[in-house]
Amino acid sequence: MALQLGDTAPDFSQESTEGTINFHEWLGDSWAILFSHPKDFTPVCTTELGEVARLKPEFDKRNTKAIGLSVDPLEDHHAWKGDIEETQGCGLNFPLLADADRSISEKYGMIHPNANNTLTVRSVFIIDPQKKVRLTLTYPASAGRNFQEILRVLDSLQLTDNQKVATPVNWRQGDDVIIVPSLSNEEAAKLFPQGWDEKKPYLRMTKLDK
């Protein structure tokens, strides 16, 4: 059965470009972005890995670790690292799992037989410090991922975990948010003394203090 939001992310031990990863132990009290690649030495994957390496300071600010995966062997990963740095201008600075036995790919449902029964698709999982799956995305092999969108959703998850709000369409940090409908106006007034714009009783927009 496919992983659902709220499920515990399966633990695993696997070799990577940074040594053996015991996933839950490695995760610790951080968030994680776990993302898979169809194959080493492929063009779209090369651009994605370079982008995630460039975004490391942004992930660090959000207490988030990135970890990639491909079903190719570890020696191929190490050889590929040079191409990534040469073409993308940023070297690999996070672990890339060598899932040659496909054990992780099977646990996480990363292999889709209708697409190709040997290659992983572009799967993304956001996993929180309690080891719960908070987001899943699946892209076709031909389409590179938008990691700015992944950062945006991570910001939303971290915000809404701590405040009684939800984030509207196209929300970015600093934009107005929605007060959750489960709060009465009396309860909302205590939590949001700055007030709100009530467009409908269920749609109350407010700006959070920085």
Tell me what the structure shows.
InterPro entries: AhpC/TSA, Peroxiredoxin_AhpC-typ, Peroxiredoxin_C, PRX_1cys, Thioredoxin-like_sf, Thioredoxin_domain. It comes from Kushneria pakistanensis. Residues 3-159 form the Thioredoxin domain. Belongs to the peroxiredoxin family. AhpC/Prx1 subfamily. One of its GO terms (molecular function) is peroxidase activity. By secondary structure, the chain is α+β, with helices and mostly antiparallel strands. The chain is 31% helix and 22% strand. The chain contains seven helices and eleven strands. The strands form three sheets. Strands 5-4-3-6-7 form a five-stranded mixed beta sheet. A four-stranded antiparallel beta sheet has the order 8-9-11-10, with helices on one face. Strand 1 and strand 2 form a beta hairpin. The longest helix is centred in the last third of the chain and has 16 residues, at 147-162. The mean pLDDT is 93.
Oligomer: single chain
Number of strands: 11
Content-based structural category: alpha+beta
Largest sheet strand order = 5-4-3-6-7
* Termini Cα gap: 41 Å
Average pLDDT metric: 93
Calculate Rg over CA atoms: 19 Å
* General form: elongated
Count of discrete alpha- or pi-helical segments spanning 4 or more residues: 7
- Secondary-structure element sequence? EEHEHHEHEHEEHEEHEE
| Proportion of helical residues | 25-40%
- Low-pLDDT windows of residues: none
Strand content: 15-25%
Biggest β-sheet: count, sense, barrel? 5 strands, mixed
Domain Thioredoxin: 3-159
Protein name: Peroxidase
GO molecular function: peroxidase activity
Keywords: Antioxidant, Oxidoreductase, Peroxidase, Redox-active center
